Amino acid sequence: MAESPQMKPRSLNCCRCGTAFACTGDITCWCGAVPYRLRVTDIDAQRDCLCPACLRRAAIATVR
Question: What's 9-52 look like in SS3?
Fold first, then answer.
């Protein structure tokens, strides 16, 4: 069985703070390893990814 090729990371800027970070867009991406998940709303679906720090802050805010 042939392995699927790993996606080349793309450079993104966080839609909240503007920080640059890399995203592979597949299961090897850094966000796949974080211990929290956020519900994606219709508004979120119109935006792009969050950087690690903003994703962490958003997860903490949803718990409160």
Answer: CEEEECCCCCCEEEECCCCCCHHHHCCCCCCCCHHHHCCCCCCH
